[in-house]
Amino acid sequence: MDFNHSDERRMLQETLHRYLSDNYGVEQRAASVAHSQGYSEKVWGDFAELGVIGALFEEADGGFGGSGFDIAVVFEELGRFACVEPLMASGVMAGRLLSALGSDEQKALIGDVIAGQLKVVPALEEPQSRYDLDAVETTAEQVDGGYRLNGTKSVVMGGPSADKLIVSARCADGLMLFVLDANANGVERYSYPNLDGYHASDVALVNVEVRSTAVLGASEAVLPALEAARAAGVTALCAEAVGAMEAAKDLTAEYLRVRTQFGRALGKFQALQHRMSTVLIEIEQARSALINVAGHLSAEPFLRDKHVSAAKNLIGRVAQLVCEESIQLHGGIGMTEEYALGHHAKRLMMIDHQLGDVDYHLERFVGVMQSEAAQERA
Amino acid sequence: MDLNYSADELAFRDEVRSFLDKNLSSALSEKVRLGKRLSKADLEEWHATLNRRGWLAVNWPVEHGGTGWNAVYRHIFEEELCLAHAPRTIPFGLSMLAPVLLKFGSKAQQDHFLPRILDGTDWWCQGYSEPQAGSDLASLKTRAVRDGDQYVVNGQKTWTTLGQHADWIFCLVRTDPAAKAQEGISFLLIDMKTPGVTVRPITLIDGGQEVNEVFFEDVRVPVGNLVGEENKGWTYAKYLLTHERTNIAGVGFSTAALAHLKDICGKQTSGGKSLLANPYFAGRVAQIEIDLMAMATTNLRMIAKAAAGQAPGAESSMLKIKGTEIRQAINDLTRRAVGRYAMPFVSEALDSGANAQGVGPEYAAAASPSYFNNRKLSIFGGSNEIQRNIISKAILGL
Ligand SMILES: Cc1cc2nc3c(=O)[nH]c(=O)nc-3n(C[C@H](O)[C@H](O)[C@H](O)COP(=O)(O)OP(=O)(O)OC[C@H]3O[C@@H](n4cnc5c(N)ncnc54)[C@H](O)[C@@H]3O)c2cc1C
């Protein structure tokens, strides 16, 4: 048993930490948030150069990482600095789908992604689908030499800066995925910022014609690949949340040390000490849940998804606690946009709305529990 | 024990309902229901509507243009307004300053200021908190130094709600720095147009601008604007705080917000079914409704006491805590209910009268901003921690 990261991973984490400390202060973050596509070309190029994008991919794909713990160290740092660059959208889920399902030509895109020259973004969810990846109403109709796509994809994270989209659609044979140009004829993006500073798009697909070579994977392989990609995505989100929690906790503990009311530091009030102790205990729980999911990312799907739902549920609950307690213990100052706490607090709550919220994953975990019980009876 | 309203009270409720039917425009109530930001004009329009009917100053005596209603009538009125999604009235002049002027102000101050609150000539804001004086309000430092028939004011207030719209600010200022903290404070009325007053807006995490910093630099205030006696301001402020605590439970707000939440649940689907058919989510909503039903009765118990002439004591702290917890929980569920559409934030789409295109269903736009905005409920008006301190001391004797 060893709960320490390998030397390479520690170096990656330190490199990224130093880079973000030096280059991703309040002003850079504000610039990315204000950018019409929600990212910084400079930072993106630096991520590629530092190997941050490559760390998310396996060697077979041209990367030098790709395990759950590689994803975890990268995203924990991004969370700590409230980074809004669309790395999760572009680097994690789309990368996994291309790697698992892609033709040689499609897999070749990964090299450009790692080099920071291309952003491929999954556009899976729809207005009515809530958090289900298979509740797809977008249609793919077979036409001469290819398919015609119609439908709407909603709140596509990283949509504004995407060069290519991976779109799910339903055709006569079942669920299918397509890789298409984000600027193809008939693809209409309505882009906007999210409350936490990330940017997203609603994407309308109106008679979008794609060739057969755009199909990503065989239909029966789609859902398992989506689940595997989601597992990687959830790992990234959980790590980002843990980083944001640590940052919020540090800011709050420091504030309690320096803010005085009634002639003493707020941190001397026992009522508040106990609240902070609870926050600390719960963050340790969150970190363990993150280790569980990262450590099972390559496990067989049943076990993997058990940890996915456990982690996303637990971390969603702790994220809310940390968000609400850090705002409350700050008082008015915690509610101001100017102060960094708010950035972490908002991100912590919005993470619950990506790839399934606390209830969604509780329900899935109950499903796991029930089938385990049924197996035991059998 | 009788849990029902009297016939008179029921008749009054019907009267309020038919008034709202005729006088609350659906354009305005829709903005409130959907959590949009109200403009100053929206708020002025609503104050004027209530004032025309004589129902603006619900807690003033009749001779000053108030309704003279007892606590039960006020409760019925406030609840009906909430249920109809009427804008809330702005409390600073109506229910914070006016009671102090009525009790401690001079006749000249009453005659000058009260009518101007009613007809909307003057907008007031509350200048209590300072950067270093939040929960520990008595440590405030803004100085007022007597110079002939004027005070010269220097210092800073903060978190001043709607200060950007205000014509006047009522302030707590330090007039005797040598006295014990609570004893050197005075209650001063300051015209915001006086040279030396600067207002700087503060943007909150929901993107809204409802609070401000207010700076005073050699601001000259006529001594006639002192309320009551010099150095007695703390007594007046405490008196005012008991008025701030009426309707503190916000039962009406919660009831209206819960109805809105259920409406959203009916429109949102999960696995192809209404969200209320999802036992996980339905259970959460049910839990809140159960809490709210009990709190509504706790609230009525306090109101009945108040109507019988007993002053609300430390019990109002209980209502403040429970009431704000329930409101925040409903905001939390509303955010959850809209699913991924809790994320998009087109700030302009929340502005009153804006044409900016939102994202997703209209009811989703304010869900997350409201959740974050209402974190304030447990911070201001005496934070929930301070309320627990009061309960521990005053009720439990610890
Ligand atoms: C949106 C908003 C609007 C406001 N509007 C106005 C306004 O119009 N006019 C005005 O004058 N003020 C206004 N306020 C200010 C409000 O009254 C203060 O925020 C409040 O008094 C708390 O003070 P603080 O923010 O300085 O927090 P602090 O007092 O610094 O408190 C920070 C944390 O410590 C806790 N704490 C403090 N003391 C103790 C203790 N003894 N024991 C245990 N816990 C303690 C608090 O509960 C809080 O959780 C507003 C605030 C907000 C957020």
CATH superfamily of the largest domain in chain B, please? Butyryl-CoA Dehydrogenase, subunit A, domain 3
Secondary structural class of chain A: alpha+beta
Tell me the CATH superfamily of the largest domain in chain A.
Butyryl-CoA Dehydrogenase, subunit A, domain 3
The CATH topology of the largest domain in chain B turns out to be Butyryl-CoA Dehydrogenase, subunit A, domain 3
Give the domain tally of chain B: 3
Greatest interface: A-B, 49 and 51 residues
Mean pLDDT of chain A: 97
Distance from N terminus to C terminus of chain B (CA atoms, Å) equals 32 Å
- Give the neighbour order of strands across the main sheet of chain B: 1-4-5-8
State which percent range the strand residues of chain A make up: 15-25%
Name given to the CATH architecture of the largest domain in chain B: Up-down Bundle
Write the layout of secondary structure elements.
The complex is a heterodimer of chains A (378) and B (398).
Chain A (H helix, E strand, L loop, with lengths): L6 H17 L2 H9 L6 H10 L17 H13 L6 H15 L2 H11 L5 E4 L15 E5 L2 E12 L6 E8 L2 E8 L5 E7 L5 E13 L7 H40 L1 E2 L2 E2 L4 H26 L5 H30 L9 H12 L6 H20 L1
Parallel strand pairs in A: 1-4
Antiparallel strand pairs in A: 2-3, 3-7, 4-5, 6-7, 8-9
Chain B lengths: L6 H17 L2 H8 L6 H14 L17 H13 L7 H14 L2 H12 L5 E4 L15 E5 L2 E8 L10 E7 L10 E7 L5 E6 L8 E12 L3 E2 L5 H12 L6 H17 L1 E2 L2 E2 L4 H29 L7 H23 L29 H7 L10 H12 L3
Parallel strand pairs in B: 1-4
Antiparallel strand pairs in B: 2-3, 3-7, 4-5, 5-8, 6-7, 9-10
Flavin-adenine dinucleotide (FAD) sits at the interface of chains B and A.
Cofactor (chain B): FAD
Family (chain B): Belongs to the acyl-CoA dehydrogenase family.
Protein name (chain B): Pimeloyl-CoA dehydrogenase large subunit
